[in-house]
Amino acid sequence: MATDIIAIPEEQGLETHGIERVSPKTRTHVRILDNFTMWLSANLVISTIGLGALAIPIFGLGFWDSLAIIIIFNVIGVLPVAFFSTLGPKLGLRQMTISRFAFGWVGGIIMALFNVAACIGWSVVNVIIGGQLINALSSGRVPSWAGILILAILTTLVSVFGYRYVHRYERWAWIPMAVIFAIMFFVAAPHFSIAVSSNTTTAAEIAGLLSFGGAVFGFAVGWSSYAADYNVNQPEDTPSSRVFWLTFLGVFIPCILLETLGMAFTTNAAWSTIFANGLVGDLLAAVVKPLGGFGTLILVLLALSVIANNIPNDYSLGLSVQVFGRPFQRVPRYVWTLIGAILYVSIALPAQANFAHTLTDFLLIVAYWLGPWAIILILEHFVFRHGRYNVDDWNNPRRLPIGWAAVVSMALGLVGVLLGAAQVYYTGPIAKLVGPYGMDIGFELGVVFAAISYLILRRIEINTSEKSRLGTAAE
């Protein structure tokens, strides 16, 4: 690119810029409520229902303890998303670019690779779920591969055009979904019951609580690696407190409501049995079956909700690829978005027949990186920079930190994850100590290991090679 700072007083047509810093003097995105609707639409989708539905049949929890876990771990998971969102207007930089101020140039590339893998993986899972639902609704007349292509094309049509069009879509996409989920609640409510935990021992109960809590946390914190991407064009003086709370509520409200609704669906024994195969579409089809043809229409619209969830994945993927270095930055963001769409469709088409569950399990494991990554950036902001950044250094490797402290702390955080993770294909040694299937504390150990390491190693990094680099640039 010709410059590290761009001016976009008005975006017309295809968005051509990427991770370049947006000049504070030319920002035009003044709809602060978009910080709320962006995340409301992205989370008011069927995958949020599916997460809540895991609590009772999979983790053996009861109604009240599931509700408590949903609330507590969503609060913890949404906090980093809301905080990182405040950095968009403040710095005018995209989220993975901000990682450079802790991880340095090379470490930033590593984190961007993690994020690209997550973007592609979640896109694969979402279109597979949507494609299978479309196939079921058409009684096989529309094959799953066609449903996948339809959803991918509709998603790409929005994400490829860029920031402005992403917000235009997400600004309204939540409305029909809110109406649909309200209808489903009133249809299903007479069939709800107060389920009790099926765990027979205290150890099993604790394991179930923490394992489900880890899944809830991972789902919410998953947006943190995209957070600042969607308000960089808002004025620099946009109140951080308003950005924080609007973002917090935009993620928190739909996650709480839909995860609780999904959990409530499985308090019905018949519906819980249907969900035993793990397919969210089958569960939702059973819930709306009494509505007949109108229920089928509802399921079609629910399948289309995948678009609102996948748009942030596709748009942020293009931005993350540009963090790989200047040669990648010279390629327009929308080209990387298109390539990403082709790639995830190429994976989804052969995988959709047999591997939806495997992919979901794999992506839950991939999400573990977000805890250590987020705590490192939070400590960098509050402990070492005190909120001050030399924003003009964002694209200058010589002016950025070396980043070895963050990279080593990230590696140690992943060691903590390996010790505490409990998944279908792997259970860490610490996780094995509690319950017959292990207690998943991978997120917790990952955050603790990374935080302690960074507090120690970053001071060493600063004292040996960084005293002149932090600077005192104004916020």
Helix and strand topology:
Layout (H helix, E strand, L loop, with lengths): L4 E2 L14 E2 L11 H10 L2 H7 L10 H23 L1 H5 L3 H4 L1 H38 L6 H16 L3 H26 L13 H20 L18 H26 L3 H6 L5 H9 L4 H30 L3 H5 L2 H19 L4 H11 L3 H15 L19 H17 L21 H24 L10
Parallel strand pairs: 1-2
Helix pairs in contact: 1-8, 1-10, 2-10, 3-9, 3-10, 6-7, 6-13, 6-15, 6-16, 6-18, 7-13, 7-15, 8-13, 12-13, 13-15, 17-18, 17-19, 18-19
Tell me what you see in this structure:
With 475 residues, this protein is mostly helical. The chain is built from 19 helices and 2 strands. The protein has helices spanning 34-43, 46-52, 63-85, 87-91, 95-98, 100-137, 144-159, 163-188, 202-221, 240-265, 269-274, 280-288, 293-322, 326-330, 333-351, 356-366, 370-384, 404-420, 442-465, and strands at 5-6, 21-22. Strands 1-2 form a two-stranded parallel sheet. Helix 3 packs antiparallel against helix 10 (240-265), helix 6 packs across helix 7 and helix 12 (280-288) runs antiparallel to helix 13. It starts with a strand and ends in a 10-residue tail after the last helix. The model has no long low-confidence stretch (mean pLDDT 89).
Which short descriptors sum up this protein?
two-stranded parallel sheet, single chain, 19 helices, mainly alpha, 2 strands, 475 residues, globular, 1% strand
Oligomer: single chain
What share of residues is helical? 55-70%
SSE order, one letter for each helix or strand: EEHHHHHHHHHHHHHHHHHHH
Strand order of the largest sheet: 1-2
Distance between the termini: 25 Å
Number of strands: 2
Rg: 22 Å
Shape: globular
Give the number of helices: 19
Task: Give the low-confidence spans.
Answer: none
The major β-sheet equals: 2 strands, parallel
Structural class given helices, strands, pairing?
A: mainly alpha
Please state the average pLDDT score.
Answer: 89
Beta-strand content: under 5%
